[in-house]
């Protein structure tokens, strides 16, 4: 564990900063939900109310909670509605939605792509597939990257892959394609699937239009909500989550984040003074964040 990431619950500066926070952007997998995807479980995936109780407490206190995830739109809509929230950010920042019912508003982010990049009635997902981004990565890095089945379907903005990659190496492969794309590390997975690499844990990766990121989606969403950066916090466990620090006042990493090589590399590469860690892993760390916000704000 890097010693220079202070503990959220024991740092006066964090408690001060949390007093301004009115919206929390939360990652799901590896952060809010247990292994297997339940919120009704502790960090060890045993049945527990530890997370659910804090979801209810934050809802009662009026903190807006916005799930921000690599998952697709339909998965996010159902989960957001189920947990009593009102907006979500899907596909690693590509889709920003307010409202979970029949009435909703959405913004699709194409990153830095010029306005004429997409042919009419074409989604970014279709454009990325048209330049064979997944196939090119698989040909260049055999055994190290594959579709993350069965979640690679029903997507609109990004590819979802599973692999064990040096992100810079994968990015160099994408840079040869005739469409500006980014490779994003979205954290550790449990299963290697059919990958043959064993020199690092498997990770989820996204291929997105260049510039699309969770951090950029938060900036767009805060502007849409009329809130300032200081009024936002984020919590996560992956390298792309760590970048959310650039868009919020308070960035929290759950304890399991420090097992990810992307997170430790990101911490080393860019010193930031608004990143804190929780003592506990996964949902139990999320619950620690919630209790700390409630204590700091007296809500
Ligand atoms: Mg995650």
Rg is 18 Å
Work out the oligomeric state of the chains in this entry: single chain
What low-confidence regions span 5 or more consecutive residues with pLDDT below 50?
none
CATH fold call of the largest domain:
Rossmann fold
Q: List each distinct ligand once.
A: magnesium ion
CATH class of the largest domain: Alpha Beta
Question: What's a quick, concise take on this entry?
Answer:
With 299 residues, the chain is an alpha/beta fold. It folds into 2 domains: 8-109 and 213-297, 3-Layer(aba) Sandwich (Rossmann fold); 124-209.
Structural write-up:
With 299 residues, the chain is of the alpha/beta class. It has 2 domains: 8-109 and 213-297, HAD superfamily/HAD-like (Rossmann fold, 3-Layer(aba) Sandwich); 124-209. Helices cover 31% and strands 18% of the residues. The chain contains 10 helices and 12 strands. Strands 2-1-10-11-12 form a 5-stranded parallel β-sheet. Strands 6-7-9-8 form a 4-stranded antiparallel β-sheet. Strand 4 (95-98) and strand 5 form a beta hairpin. Helix 2 (50-61) packs parallel to helix 10 (282-297). The two termini are 32 Å apart. The mean pLDDT is 95.
Give the arrangement of secondary structure elements.
Elements: H1 12-18, E1 23-26, H2 50-61, E2 64-67, H3 73-82, E3 87-90, E4 95-98, E5 105-108, H4 124-130, H5 133-140, E6 145-147, E7 159-163, H6 167-174, E8 181-188, E9 203-209, H7 214-225, E10 232-236, H8 239-242, E11 250-253, H9 261-269, E12 275-277, H10 282-297
Parallel strand pairs: 1-2, 1-10, 10-11, 11-12
Antiparallel strand pairs: 3-4, 4-5, 6-7, 7-9, 8-9
């Amino acid at each position: 564990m890097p010693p220079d990431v202070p503990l959220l619950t024991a740092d006066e500066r964090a408690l001060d900063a949390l007093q301004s926070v009115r919206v929390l952007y939360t990652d799901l997998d590896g952060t809010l939900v247990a292994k297997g995807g339940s919120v009704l479980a502790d960090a060890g995936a045993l049945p527990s109310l530890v997370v659910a109780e804090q979801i209810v407490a934050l809802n009662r206190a009026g903190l807006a909670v916005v799930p921000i995830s690599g998952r697709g739109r339909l998965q996010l809509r159902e989960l957001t509605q189920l947990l009593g929230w009102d907006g979500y950010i899907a596909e690693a920042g590509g889709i920003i939605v307010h409202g979970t019912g029949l009435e909703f508003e959405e913004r699709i982010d194409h990153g830095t792509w010029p306005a004429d990049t997409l042919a009419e009635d074409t989604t970014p997902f279709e454009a990325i597939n048209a330049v064979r981004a997944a196939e090119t990565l698989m040909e260049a890095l055999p055994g190290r990257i594959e579709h993350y089945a069965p979640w690679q379907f029903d997507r609109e903005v990004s590819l979802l892959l599973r692999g064990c990659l040096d992100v810079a190496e994968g990015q160099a492969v994408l840079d040869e394609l005739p469409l500006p794309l980014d490779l994003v590390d979205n954290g550790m997975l449990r299963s290697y699937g059919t990958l043959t690499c064993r020199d690092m844990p498997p990770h989820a990766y996204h291929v997105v239009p260049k510039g699309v990121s969770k951090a950029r989606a938060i900036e767009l969403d805060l502007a849409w909500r009329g809130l300032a950066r200081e009024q936002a916090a984020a919590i996560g466990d992956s390298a792309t989550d760590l970048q959310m620090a650039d868009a919020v006042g308070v960035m929290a990493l759950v304890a399991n984040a420090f097992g990810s090589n992307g997170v430790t590399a990101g911490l080393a590469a860019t010193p930031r003074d608004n990143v804190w860690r929780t003592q506990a892993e996964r949902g139990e760390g999320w619950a620690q964040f919630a209790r700390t916000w409630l204590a700091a704000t007296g809500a």
